[in-house]
Specification:
The protein has 6 helices and 5 strands. By secondary structure, the protein is of the alpha+beta class. A 5-stranded mixed β-sheet has the order 1-2-3-4-5, sandwiched between helices. Strand 3 and strand 4 form a beta hairpin. Helix 1 packs across helix 2. The longest helix has 15 residues.
């Protein structure tokens, strides 16, 4: 199938927002999506963006029945590992269901890896839900490994009131 991978632009935020909601629905967490199209525009395309994004786009003849040509995305950002140095973190890799198995996800992930290497990164990190076996198998087939099972690391989070309490020096127990 014909498709192109390109850097996202501010005008893509409507489609990125749509695909974020599709991904959240697939992950059974649509109620957790709090960001808006405007947030994406501000946070991804300001002078100091919080994230980078690439888009997978198909030609006119392959559009969805709803008319979508933007059928996948990878959202990523640069970070730093005190063990490995420069790192790229892929927050999302998503391809619409009807376009999976056509090499689009592999091309998106490969492009994130290329961009990371070009920026001097030496590792690509991301998370995958433990019940998402197709995705886990895909990532393993790309040479990735599961650091939770192999190294015992767990992904931790602090948000909302707990984050505010922590920032005030009064962490909740």
């Amino acid at each position: 199938m014909d498709f192109t991978i390109r850097a996202a632009m501010p005008e893509d935020c409507k489609d990125i927002s749509r695909m974020i909601m599709e991904l959240a629905t697939h992950e059974k967490i649509p109620d957790q999506v709090k960001i808006t199209q405007r947030d994406l525009e501000q946070d991804g395309f300001s002078r100091n963006p919080f994230f980078q994004c690439i888009i997978a786009e198909v030609p006119e003849q392959h559009r969805t029945k709803e008319g979508h040509a933007k059928v996948g995305y990878a959202l990523y950002f640069y970070t730093y590992s005190t063990l490995k140095g420069r790192s790229v973190y892929m927050e999302d890799l998503y391809v619409m269901a009807e376009f999976r198995g056509k090499g689009i996800g592999k091309a998106l992930m490969s492009k994130v890896a290329q961009l990371g290497l070009a920026a001097g990164c030496n590792q690509l990190s991301f998370t995958v839900l433990n019940w998402n076996k197709p995705s886990m198998d895909f990532y393993l087939s790309q040479g990735c490994w599961d650091i939770t099972s192999d190294s015992g690391y767990h992904c931790m989070r602090c948000e909302g009131a707990a984050l505010e309490s922590l920032a005030e020096g009064n962490p909740k127990k």
